[in-house]
Amino acid sequence: MTLLLVLHAHQPVGNFPAVFEQAVEQCYRPVIQTLAAYPGFRCALHFSGPLLSWLEHHDSGLIDEITALCGRGQVEMLSGGYYEPLLASIPARDALAQLEMQSAATRRLFGQEPTGFWLAERIWEPALPAKLAPAGLAYTLVDDTHFYYAGLEPEAMFGYHLTEREGHTLALLPTHKDLRYTIPFREPAETIAFLRRAFEKQGPTCAIYGDDMEKFGLWPKTWDWVFGQRWLERFCEALLTEEAWLTTGLPGEYLAQHPPRGRVYPPTASYEEMLTWALPAEASAALERLIHDLEGEGRYQTMRRFLRGGMWDNFLVKYREANLMHKRMLWVSQKLDEHGIVGQAYDHLLQAQCNCAYWHGLFGGLYLGHLRQAVHAHLIAAESLADADIQGPGPWAQCSVTDLDRDGHDEVVLAVPEMDTVVHPAYGGSCSVLNLREARANLADVLTRRREAYHRLFQEPPVPAEPAAADGVASIHDLKVFKEPELEKYLVYDWYERACFQDHLLAPEAEAAKFAAPDYGEWGDLVTGAFELLDAGAEGDWAWCALRRESFLFAPGGPFPLRVDKRFTLQAGGRLTCAYAIATSDPATPACRLGVELNLTMLAADDPAKRLEAAGQALPLDQLWEESGVNAARLIDEERGFAVTLAPNRPASLWHFPVQTVSNSESGLERSFQGSSLTWVWSLPGGEARSEFSVTLEIT
What domains appear along the chain, each with residue ranges and CATH number? Predict the structure, then answer.
């Protein structure tokens, strides 16, 4: 029996430097040094591009230690997408560029020509063998889940199979779930017993383990188990002791010496947990309950190949913010491709394809604002450099009408050298993007508060944080940790997707606190209703679009006819104005209030370098408040180096509340500040009337 062990080390683009440092000292270095102490223990490694780049600049000694292991034939290095993209979700040109970057780094740093690649999050699509064929790589790792979905029996989870598309073959090595749940969480004897049973039943073959190196010291409580209690040393020693029937090997070497077990055509898939997370919250919870029930009945192993969740792409439906990032990434990629732009702009695009911020499951991912902002920052940088090359020097303005987010409705993209925005006529005439180009910040990147499947944990009894036996450590899949008391009071869910310039019609007595709940009673349908696009264009150094909605005021005694004209104007220098003309025609129309909401992020609520100034004072970002008679508000971010002024054309009340979410992470359930809801509120007269308002956002 040959154990093919593949350890994957990764830190996402945009992660904090302190996290890189902690990961190296607490996990990556001790793992590499332990491997060096056991030269007979052979395995494969994959270090992602963001991590390699960080090591080259901050800790090249660890690269030297890995290179030494490669030089003595103990370690095989895998290629992969350099910035850890999901290869199935990006254009083929970019996927091949990502693979070549990683392969080139492997040759340069470790002196090896890679023959296989790490498939990020094991996101598999049947078209990948043809899509990636020019890279010249022979194998990748998938989960046993992929093979089960192809209808195979448990015996097929050993050895490897070939798949193909359009005549291009690729070897698939299935990582075994039983190994992923014992390594490194249980005593080495359990893993060896599993391998012994497989060997006695299967004869000479290979078993594959491929998983995150972060489980070896970074996941909660694992450092003491893996290194303090010497699990990794004992694991290496235990396997080497069984050399009469068990050996460790290198995947590329094993494939060169052994034929495939057969052919297989897995459907679109990922690991089991990912496909569950990708489902809508209620469906995800229902599938988890079904799996739990089948496990209790002892029928899960028989039924698992007939059970599956969604596909990774479902995250682009589940989370509008993920879809907007993904479709803007495709927009920028197409722009660079059409104009033949490479170099620094293209590298920024590839960095923006790092997968971590595009989805959410057990890990923070999408819920971590600094990771989303890293994606936006690199997209902004890539497009800014491209536009500078395309447009040339001097002020300019662009207006593009296109279905950018691929929802069947056109968006309007307005851009000048300093700023760009995306207007959604079909979704309330709102803006999903407010890109400050010099600061490389999307000010509108605020996550909607949503129900998640794991929120049911607040109604379930606590689960012990440690396994009952003293011979292992709990996986984070089995932990239930609340990182602060009374988290349940932050379980607030929005009825609309958060954006900027969202228009609320409010009762005269509406309150800021109920607006934040949200439990205030909307009198209109402007927030989610579709506006007609009347006009859009660009001339000289300004771009614009004009929208209209014929609707109603849904007040008591109504509905009452209402027409809203809404016009966006973006001027070079970084000045965006949204102007309103609101007309009512029924003399019986009651008075009400208009609230224009902007959801803006400063990334942190308690950082003095990021602040909001209004009414002559600095106002807190972590509290609900309201101020009357406000002429302007100013957002200042000293860290990213920008300030913007928000100014209504007439004094207004200003309502503020922090947008906070409760999300899961590897260390437990936690509260995250996503941004600020800022709403300008004016009174609208009753009867037949026409009122005009505007709000300007300007880089200052």
Answer: 2-270 (3.20.110.20), 398-700 (2.70.98.10)
